[in-house]
Amino acid sequence: MGAVAPSHSQVAPLLLVDGFNVLWRGHFGFPAPIVSRDKQRNLTGLFAFFALLRATIRDDLDTPPVEVCVVLDGENGSAERKDSDADYKANRESTPAALEPLQFLAPMKEALDAYGIAWVEIDNAEADDVIATLTERHPDRPIRIMSADQDYYQLLDSDRVRIINRARKASKRIITAAEVHERYGVTPAQWPDYRALTGDKSDNLPGVKGIGAKTAAALLAGGLTLDELPSSGRLTGAKGAAINDSWTVALRCRELSRMRRDVPVGWQATGHVSPALPRPADVIEKLGMW
Fold first, then answer.
1. Is the pLDDT of residue 130 over 50?
2. Which candidate among 12, 67, 122, 154 keeps its CA 20 to 30 Å from the CA of 268?
3. If you classify domain 12-184+260-283 with CATH, what class do you get?
4. CA 206, CA 218: separation in Å to the nearest integer?
5. Nearest to 19 by CA among 42, 39, 48, 60
6. Rounded distance, CA 50 to CA 112, Å?
7. What residues pair up with 68 in beta bridges, in sequence order?
8. pTM of the predicted model, to two decimals?
9. Domain covering 188-257 assigned CATH 3.90.226.10 in the classification
C-alpha cells in the first residue's frame, strides 16, 4: 500500500536549496578548511554544504518543518542563454581552483540519497529556472529559497515566498518582498526591469552605462515596467538618451535576468517533512571519506 498523501492542512512548506550556490560559498567561505584524517584531501565544500543546510533547517526557518529539495545547475544549463548572448556569465572563472567544488557533486548526491533528501538536476536547465518552476507549481505552499543569489528576488511573493541568505547576520537572513521594495525601491516583479537598467556583475550583464540603482528605481517608480518607459515621459536628459541608445541591450539584459517558470521538472513534491540531517562529520563518515 502506497504512502498516504498529507491533507492540505498538513502539507509541509518547501525549502528549495540552490545547491551550487551553497556548495561554492561553503567551499570558499567556510571559516576553516576541513581535511581528511590523512591530510591528503580537502573536504571543505562537502562538509560545509551539509553544515550550512543542517544549520539553516535548524536555526533559520520561520515556518513549520519543511520538505527539502536541493536543486543543481545542469551541465548545459546556461547553454540557451549563452547562445543568445555569448557574454552571459563569461566573467566566471573556469580555472581548476575555481572549479574545485565540482569534485563534491557525486558524494553530495550520494549522501542526499542516503538520508532521504530530494535533489533535482536537469541537464539543460539552470537551478534558478527549476526553482522558479517549482515555486510556480506550488502556489498554495509556503516556500523558502536558500541562496545568496539576488536573482531570486523576482520570486518573492508577499509572505508565501521568502529567501534565506546565510551570508547575512542571523537576524537579517530572511529576505522578504517588503525588504526588497524598501531597500531598492522596486517590487519583486520589477526586478528583471531593474537589472535591465543597472546590469548584474555576477551574470556579466552590462545594463545601461551611467544608470545606477537610484536612477533605475526612480525611473521604475510606481510599478512601471521597462516597456512603459518610452511613453512615460521619464526618459529625459542625458540619462534618458543613454537608455534610448542602449535600448536593445536593456531588453536583452532583462530577458537574460528573467527566470523561466515552465521547465519540465519530473520531480514531484510529496508534501511530507524531509528526514533530519545528522552532523556533517557523520555524513562524511557515512561516505567513507574521512
1. yes
2. 154
3. alpha beta
4. 19
5. 48
6. 9
7. 15
8. 0.93
9. no
